[in-house]
Amino acid sequence: MKIVAMGLLASALFLFPNAGWADDSYRQGTVKPSFAMVYSDPDSSYFPLATLYRGHEVRVFKRQGKRFFVQYRMEGETREGWIDREAVLVGKLVQSQASKKEKRVYPGVVTAPKAVVYNRPGGKPMFSYPKGESVQILTQSKGWYRVRVEPKPGQETEGWVQKSDVRLNQGSSSTASSGEGEISAESPDFAPRIRGVRFFGTPVFDLYRFGTTQMKFGIAYDHNLSPALTVGVPVSFSLRGGFNALQAGLDVILRLGTWKKFSFFERTGLYFERFWGNGTSFMALTGDVGLGASWEINPSVSLALEPLSLEVTPLATEGLPWFMRFQTLLTARIQW
Predict the structure, then answer these.
(1) Which residue in 327, 251, 241 sits closest to 287, CA to CA?
(2) Rounded Cα distance, 143 and 185, in Å
């Protein structure tokens, strides 16, 4: 009989993997980093099931090794998997069905450069929390949120922040209790902006071959593969200096780090070029590398400067020797 019972239990868990959602105790949590992968088992790092972004709400049921077993909502469905422990800000224990008035947290994200956390509304500052970090909102009171944060790994602290420093994530099933009523989100879901358009211009000095200075103008479509990696398709036109050039290809932008509203990046490009002027024309293959910094004016608009980038053209259809060009690139980027 024990063998039969165990077989029936295993079949039920296989057929109804989410059946324990309503009856089991769990801890509420939110994703802390910009993004985190969900895997099918606690050990494998291959073939992730899904990608969750900062502020996504999960339910943590158990821990095994360096991962949590979680359930989450995606595309209108309840799904489950394993996620790295350091990627989740874990809240208090929730006893399912224990009370109709459960206190639940509401996920949010810091939008101010630094959100000061106080011991009470208008009271003594305790510490500041950086922009982009996730918080759990517990209650509200006249322009203030009571939040739970994790200033150090594994160390949870509660305090008060001004509402203007934090953005609520809309669409969550959780609400925060309050003497002033239920908290509602006034802003759209926090989601990464994965597409963008760059407008750029630069003087170009041909160092090796022609000794001329041109002006380059261009536009590029960007797609963010992750918070640290962007792929772009630029098209540009150069003029003056006795000849013109049309350039198109591929950019790979790697973000190296951030400081306040500034981020630092490395850009590598590979382009096909068409030169014409002075009674001749030829095709060429050009490589480009540059280092720069960008300033985020707001979540949708940023400005970037590459003080010095180097273009090298090793191949040309006219058999010309390779030549180098230096440029100082100024870029405005709009993303959504």
Answers:
(1) 251
(2) 14
